[in-house]
Design goal:
By secondary structure, this protein is mainly α. It is built from 21 helices and two strands. Strands 1-2 form a two-stranded antiparallel ribbon. Strand 1 and strand 2 form a beta hairpin. Helix 1 packs across helix 5, helix 1 packs antiparallel against helix 6 and helix 5 runs antiparallel to helix 6. The two termini are about 45 Å apart.
Length: about 425
């Protein structure tokens, strides 16, 4: 796949940075003098923003969410627009520099994230103050509640628009498709709402005594630790299910590593199709354990060298349902259960277990079917030798529209099969020799 130039992203970040600095200077030039009490509030809020950015909450296996949304929203409610925006930028900048020095400093990331926080807070503060609502009255009147909601909405939407813009500049997909994928993959809304709610409560409670801001932040480290412990338990569960799927593969030396390869191929197809990160992760995780249901299939059937009888074939056709029932019990696999259940459906409706047809088959199952078919053709089995890539492509092209969905097939044909990771795996597979006997 041809790599895109970084120029659109760098240009966008440069424009955002220049516009943000210009806007901040313009806001300060028109602002009245800053009250000493506002500077005290800013001094209390800034450390909370820094801590919230440096210590994110772990909301998924490979996804973290920064917790600075709460103090940023509190700044929107407690400070005038230019001071709120300056506090946000002054706090995010050192936090991003600290994080960048630990993980590899990217100047463009530091600049973009600092400007994103500054603009989001600035817009949120302007919206809140446009209602003419006093913070102390925000919970007493309907207009005050509307002002809080509008300010939170402005903050979150401004941040989302900026993130979407830089991702769009980097990926370069069709705008309408990118919008839909972004909305569909936006799974952190509830966390955002919880954080802005916490920020509102902290701001209202601390309006008279700003030190309460820090008192309300005391439970955050405990929450951070509890979420990490919960995540560790979920990771262990996920690894146990994956290990079970690998054990199933290892029962037959000819299918050794099959689920692992299918997962890699599936990821290539998903990325080529431009699916969102979260959807790709969901489908790939299902592909990684798609044959785990074969644990319920007898070895005599699973490893039979000759043609299966009708009874034996009916038995082996049970494995998608077995796998779906098994994985449905675990939260991290539950969303991908439908892909596991239907990865042997055919595009013409002649597959199993339920005979779904065309677009009735979940997209993830149709993608896994392509990856599964390719690996089945190119792998050596007990009853035949594995075929080369050219043969596999011809065979897959022959069954397009009947067995396989044309869209993921076309995406697979565009994928560079001989990238570094795939090349190593494919070479290892071709040179593996089954044990004697």
């Amino acid at each position: 796949m041809e790599e895109r130039s970084d120029r659109p992203v760098l240009t966008l970040i440069a424009l955002v940075t220049i516009a943000s600095v210009a806007l901040l200077f313009a806001a300060w030039s028109r602002a009245p003098g800053v009250a000493g009490s506002d500077l005290v509030v800013a001094a209390f809020v800034a450390p909370l923003i820094i801590v919230g950015r440096i210590f994110p909450l772990q909301v998924a296996f490979r996804r973290q969410m920064v917790a600075d949304t709460a103090p940023l929203f509190a700044a929107c409610l407690l400070l005038p627009p230019p001071l709120a925006a300056t506090t946000a930028c002054a706090a995010i900048l050192p936090a991003e520099l600290y994080t960048g020095l630990r993980r590899g400093l990217l100047v463009r990331q530091v600049a973009f994230n600092s400007c994103q926080a500054m603009l989001g807070v600035f817009v949120g503060t302007l919206v809140f103050q446009s209602f003419g609502s006093q913070l102390s009255h925000s919970t007493d009147t309907f207009l005050g509640a509307v002002a809080l909601g509008a300010a939170a909405f402005a903050l979150l939407v401004t941040n989302d628009i900026m993130v979407f813009s830089v991702v769009w500049a980097q990926v370069g997909l069709r705008f309408d498709r990118m919008v839909w994928d972004y909305i569909r993959g936006r799974q952190d809304v509830l966390y955002d709402l919880a954080l802005v709610g916490g920020g509102a409560v902290a701001a209202i409670a601390s309006e008279g005594t700003v030190v309460i801001l820090w008192l309300l932040a005391l439970p955050v480290p405990l929450l951070h630790r509890a979420m990490r412990n919960q995540l560790a338990l979920r990771r262990q569960t996920q690894e146990a299910v994956i290990a079970l799927a690998d054990t199933v593969d290892d029962r037959d030396p000819y299918t050794f590593g099959h689920c692992r390869r299918v997962a890699i191929f599936t990821e290539g197809i998903c990325r080529e199709m431009g699916l969102s990160h979260d959807l790709t992760e969901e489908i790939v995780l299902a592909a990684r354990v798609h044959d785990v249901g074969k644990i319920g299939i007898r070895d005599a059937v699973l490893q039979k060298p000759g043609r299966l009888t009708d009874e034996e074939f009916a038995h082996i056709k049970e494995h998608p349902e077995i796998g779906a029932r098994l994985t449905a019990r675990f939260p991290d696999f539950a969303r991908g259960t439908r892909y596991i259940r239907h990865h042997h459906e055919r595009f013409d409706g002649k597959g199993y277990p339920t005979g779904l047809k065309g677009k009735e088959i979940p997209m993830g199952a149709r993608i896994i079917a392509v990856a599964d078919t390719y690996d089945a053709i190119t792998s050596t089995r007990v009853y035949r030798e594995g075929q080369d890539d050219d043969y596999a492509r011809r065979e897959i092209a022959r069954v397009v529209g009947m067995q396989l969905d044309p869209e993921p097939v076309e995406a697979w044909f565009r994928v560079k099969l001989h990238g570094p990771g795939l090349a190593v795996i494919m070479n290892r597979r071709r040179t593996r020799v089954p044990p004697d006997g």
